[in-house]
């Protein structure tokens, strides 16, 4: 086996796995929308030389600014049951996305490009994997590679969306333990 990667691994799992075989990549949810990885897992992954492959870098589509109502989801879309997309959480999160969109508009880019550019600015060891179903979205996502964020831009994004700013847990509580995370603050 040449390369080995893990998904949603805890610090303990990363450290144990690295004693058995070098770990090349860690795939975990990470975005302006979900920053729990930064607290403990990210520093350990970097210490061990493990690349980070963030999934859902567009916050399950929310950071694109194109989701404006729970009615935007198909009846069978799992986001309808996700705490971040329900009730008051939805509106609070929508308000934060509006701020992200304002900064993106100032830079003449899409909100999704801004969210991806933020992740890319987190280090050369970060390779986000946005889900893309349409060619135009793919082209927009690739366009994020050409976006350079200044230190001022990064500070503004930190002020807009600091860790813990988003309302609601990543998953319904029944699923939290499956991902090695604890429920987010609401």
Provide structural commentary.
The chain is mainly α. The chain is built from seven helices and three strands; from the N terminus they run βαβαβααααα. Helices cover 38% and strands 7% of the residues. It has a three-stranded parallel β-sheet, covered by helices on one side. β1 (5-7), α1 (11-20) and β2 form a beta-alpha-beta unit. α3 crosses α4 (111-120) and α3 runs antiparallel to α6.
Which terms would index this structure?
three-stranded parallel beta sheet, 186 residues, single chain
Summary, kept brief:
The protein is mainly α and 186 residues long. Helix content is 38%, strand content 7%.
What spatial order of strands do you see in the largest sheet?
Answer: 1-2-3
Which residues sit in consecutive blocks of at least 5 with pLDDT less than 50? 175-186
Question: N- to C-terminal separation?
Answer: 42 Å
Structural class given helices, strands, pairing? mainly alpha
Walk me through the topology:
Elements: E1 5-7, H1 11-20, E2 25-29, H2 41-47, E3 51-55, H3 87-107, H4 111-120, H5 135-143, H6 151-160, H7 173-176
Parallel strand pairs: 1-2, 2-3
